[in-house]
Design brief:
The structure is a single chain. This protein has two domains: 1-35; 40-248, outer membrane lipoprotein receptor (LolB), chain A. The protein contains four helices and twelve strands; from the N terminus they run H-H-E-E-E-E-E-E-H-H-E-E-E-E-E-E. The protein has helices at residues 2-33, 40-54, 132-143, 157-164; strands at residues 58-71, 75-88, 92-99, 104-108, 112-117, 122-127, 167-176, 179-187, 191-198, 205-212, 218-229, 247-248. It has a twelve-stranded mixed beta sheet, covered by helices on one side.
Length: 254
């Protein structure tokens, strides 16, 4: 009887030890999976792209955008928009956008931003800082206006990505519309973003997708096309001229 009891106790002790070891291994694996990961290759590609954009004197491109908006009855509803963007030097920009948000235009000449609604034939003019980047920040902060793909033109682009995301992973080479690209994934607990960057001499952005995990997996997707590097853009392009009978309005701060 005594031997039997000792045998059972010994087996019980061994089983508890095995379970404990498995638990320790499991915790170790989970901890390892949650360790932030930043691939040096991904950072190098982002830096290369940012350096190329930063060295441009002027550029233009088209951006095809799709985005989700929440609807109380139908959940997330997909919308689309196309933006034609022109930038020159540090202090001139013009953007035409048309789609589900309507047909709109923005003209920045280094001192003022003009907004015009083609649909409503009204416009507003506000004072702005002397550089494109400062203008992006100021207009967004005061009027909640977002400029398409503006983040790519910040000189701190790579640092901003590193500061915002815990994980930045190089996923390899992918092809989009017959263009070979580097694919990079960056994510944290609230959102993730994927970049596709051209695998060619210029390493320009081709596409990006943002997923907002904390907003019901709402998505924002944009594809670049028609890149033109250092084109000569007449200064008059960035000057707004109010059409006949257009109504002047006041932009309301957010």
């Amino acid at each position: 009887m005594d031997n039997s009891i000792n045998f059972v106790n010994t087996n019980s002790f061994i089983m508890k030890k095995i379970i404990l070891i498995m638990a320790v291994i499991s915790v170790s694996l989970v901890s390892r999976a949650q360790t932030p990961r930043v691939d040096s290759v991904a950072v190098m590609i982002l830096n290369r792209m940012a350096d190329i954009i930063g060295d441009l004197n002027s550029c233009s491109f088209t951006l095809n955008i799709s985005f989700d908006t929440p609807d109380p009855d139908f959940g997330l509803v997909k919308h689309s928009e196309t933006a034609e963007v022109y930038m020159s030097g540090p202090d001139k920009a013009m953007i035409h956008s048309y789609g589900d948000k309507g047909h709109r235009g923005f003209w920045y000449n280094g001192s003022q931003v003009a907004y015009y609604s083609f649909d409503e034939n009204n416009y507003a003019i506000v004072e702005a800082p002397p550089t494109i980047i400062a203008m992006f920040d100021t207009i967004n902060k005061h009027y909640d206006i977002e400029f398409p793909a503006a983040d790519f033109f910040y000189p701190t682009f790579t640092d901003d990505v590193l500061n915002q995301f815990d994980n930045i992973i190089y996923l390899g080479e992918r092809e989009i519309d017959n263009q070979e690209c580097f694919q990079i994934l960056a994510f944290n607990s609230n959102m993730s973003v994927q970049f596709w960057i051209a695998n060619d001499a210029y390493n320009l952005p081709i596409k990006f997708v943002i997923l907002y995990k904390n907003q019901g997996n709402k998505q924002y997707e944009a594809t670049f096309s028609n890149w033109k590097l250092n084109p000569v853009i007449p200064a008059a392009v960035f000057e707004f001229m109010a059409p006949p009978k257009a109504n002047k309005i006041t932009l309301m701060p957010k």
